[in-house]
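Handout for the seminar on molecular recognition.
Each group receives one record of this type.
Step one: identify the two inputs.
Step two: read the structure output and locate the region that could contact 4'-deoxy-4'-aminopyridoxal-5'-phosphate.
Step three: write two sentences on what you found, then compare them with the reference statements printed after the record.
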Amino acid sequence: MVPVPYDQRDGFIWFNGTLVPWQDAKLHVLTHGLHYASAVFEGERAYDGEIFKLTEHSQRLHKSAQLLDFEIPYSVAELDKASREALRANNLTDAYIRPIAWRGSEQMGVAAQMTKINVTICAWDWGSYFDPAAREKGLRLTIAQYRRPDPRTAPTESKATGLYMICTIEKHRAERAGYADALMLDWRGQVAEATGANIFFAKDGVLHTPLPDCFLDGITRRTVIGLAKQRGLTVIERAILPEDMTEFSECFITGTAAEVTPVSEIGPYRFAVGDIARMLMKDYAALVHPAKAIAAAG
Ligand code: PMP
């Protein structure tokens, strides 16, 4: 079955303060955000009608925009309310929510001080980011050719659209070769992250994860560190070199879309889908589904 293109779906999109019919949420070809990547976005997930860590996402959208030298014309509280409106207007309880802010078409050229800042929020049903069967067995990752840039080269703490250019190239390269995703190293050659998710490793009951000094310190990453510590696990944030991967027994990636997903293979390195990844997948599912966790406990 051919999926319905995203611009031809039904429902409502929150567009600069009002809900508009899905197919009317259009913009002009002379949009600064399209030509010069002056756009920042978020990826949120709702479970049982609640958007997980919503305010953290709205705050990150503000921060991402500031790093690109523009300001979102809605407060964090207004963005929170708007994400909830987009979810409700589409009668969704379990969904992915995509806020995006971009510079409009009032000015063309690199300078863009006169452009209006636009914001839309869309919500749609988006199941597992990776093939559910592959999630059980662990994902197979290849090692990317492009590297996460030096923070002196790009605003790496921003969830800016332009930073995803190399991610799309690498995701395509990986899928063409039969892999689910690619592990990206950073500009120094250290392990960084996957194309849309952070990475963790386990060894002797201890978790190791790269220091997020040139890529997103994911909201899921921070949540999983908290869950691991609640379980009494030690979490070490440190520089990890590719050859260090020979020592690790388990590996998993984390992200709002990816949630907690085990990895079985990265280039020449192999990992088991083990107890730590399974436990954290379960703990994360219980945390994001409070209603189901309470029902199961009761
Ligand atoms: N890194 C990249 C490149 C991402 O796109 C994402 C997803 N937003 C993450 C990490 C994980 O971030 P989060 O857990 O906040 O979704």
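Reference statements: The chain is about 30% helix and 25% strand. Residues 286 and 293 are 5 Å apart (CA to CA).
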